[in-house]
Amino acid sequence: MPSRLTLALEKDLLQLPDVGTIAALNASPLDDFGGVEVGRLKAQQNHFPDVEALNASGIETKPQITGSFAATLVRCHRAKAATHGLIAHAVEMTQTGGLIIVDGDKTNGVESIVKDLRKLVTLEDVYSKSHGKLLWFAKTDTPPDLSHWTAEPTKVADFVTYPGVFSADKIDKGSQLLAAHLPDLLGQIADLGAGWGYLSRKVLESDAVTTLDLIEADALALQAAKQNITDPRAEFLWADALNVPKKGYDAVISNPPFHTTRAAEPALGQGFIQAAARMLKPSGSFWMVANRNLPYEDTLDAAFGNTQLVTQENGFKIFHARKPKMSRPR
User: Fold this and answer.
1) pLDDT (tens digit, 9 = 90+) per residue, 54-85?
2) β-bridge mates for residue 211, sequence order
3) Which residues, 6 or more positions from 164, have their beta carbon under 8 angstroms from its beta carbon?
């Protein structure tokens, strides 16, 4: 089905410029960019697998982009503060007279964004379709001051986080539970899906840890982790956790994500389990936390020769798995 942008263009509700580069913030490989040639697009995205897919399609994509653009497309983030930050950045980088076009589903709070923008700018139109909205406005000679919308780092205890990253405003209860049950680890460790570094700091309390790789697909979360973890044993890898090339770890720890949308996607966590088994030494072990209702037991049994349910508390379960089958020579 055509996107709201394509339909609005076909209905002649708005026009994109014929020349100049167009920015796409929070872009997705699934986005329909209204027929704009890929060579005219420059995209921003934090999530490593999406960045790889967009670059493979011919759209230059990075976690941060700068420049002066003929128009800017903004896809709403699930976190309102993150969407505010994207729009503020769009206004800053768009040329005078150029359009800032915002698209979002109701589930991502686009209706609230419409209300917020009406207080600050004159919207040219709002197009509603398929449980979402497309809205746009032109950058004037005197653009609105959106400095208060800029995404600034925040504090959770003594950790730095950013709007839009996982558990941006509180320490995740599952991570807290896993941290409470982790033994003192030793050797080369990987934190798979490290986020902003809460579990990694716990791991580094052990003097027997020689190296710790924080592996995270969200570039913004990893940026926060670099501020939270200053131990020289730590390395930071922006990567797809399902396809980590490094192997030979003594232990892998993880609080894997279980959704990319609002619906649970157990296959994500199952992929983390399989990745951990590939990354470990034959003598290595895997520690993970999961929501109690997620079906990970069969995957753990298939990937490891020995799996122990350490505890079930407060809606979570902790597993300790050993004898990774996927690390063994065939």
Assistant:
1) 999 999 999 999 999 999 999 999 999 999 99
2) 188
3) 46, 77, 78, 79, 81, 82, 85, 151, 220
